[in-house]
Amino acid sequence: MSGATIPPHDESAERIERVERRWASVMVCIVALMVVLATLGGVHEAALPQHQAVTVDPRTLHLAGEFVESNLGSAVEPDGSVTVRAVGQQYSFTPSCIVVPADTPVTFRMTSADVVHGFLIAGTNVNLMLVPGYISSLAARFPRPAESHMPCHEFCGVGHEGMWAEVHVIDKAAFARLAAGSRRLSCVQ
Ligand code: CUA
After folding, report:
1. Helices H, strands E: what count in the chain?
2. Residues forming beta bridges with residue 119, ordered by sequence position
């Protein structure tokens, strides 16, 4: 009696196992496909220049537009965020000391007046290439007050070594007090 019932039972168990194995391999394929797509997407993204490239004429930066000297530095936007505009040129940044509030959304908008420069804030993930003709933009947020160096990290000529600036992240309230008295802020002495 039992001998008659076991074979069909075994058969169905085998069939279930087969189906499960098939589905398991389908799942592994799906996961592998997602990993491949994410990798390709990431590499593709990293290999491209910033999408939505915004251009600016490096020869007239000082004459008109958002990078005229009086418009450089940190500005408070209506929504309370801060926009920092700065220019890199052989062999300095303008302004040479950037001041931003802690715990506030900050957007950097930067460009180069001559050759390719690099912009990074030590100890943070803020890292941009400044390419003449293009505006590089990056959103950041600094958790607490700090002072960081901001070296040029792209070889740009004989003075490259000496091309660096400073970033002062200050208390939000202190920044608000400074901003009340000035349209554009920097910590250049
Ligand atoms: Cu600018 Cu190196």
Report:
1. 2, 11
2. 128
pLDDT (tens digit per residue) in 128-142: 999 999 999 999 999
- State how far the Cα of 19 lies from the Cα of 157, in Å rounded to an integer: 65
Interstrand relation of 92-94 and 97-101 (parallel, antiparallel or unpaired): unpaired
CA distance 186 to 87: 13
Output the ligand 1 site: residues, CB below 6 A.
88, 117, 152, 154-156, 160, 163
The Å distance, Cα 107 to ligand 1 centre, comes to 21
What is the number of the ligand 1 atom nearest to the C-alpha of 160?
A: 2
143 C-alpha to ligand 1 centroid (Å): 27
Average pLDDT, the chain: 89
Sorting pLDDT into bands at 50, 70 and 90, what band is 50? low
Cβ density class 115-154: b for 16+ within 10 Å, e for less: bebbbbbeebebebbbbbebbbebebebeebeebebbbbb
Report pTM. 0.71
- Which ligand 1 atom lies nearest to the CA of residue 115? 1
Give per-residue pLDDT as tens, 22-49: 999 999 999 999 999 999 998 887 777 6
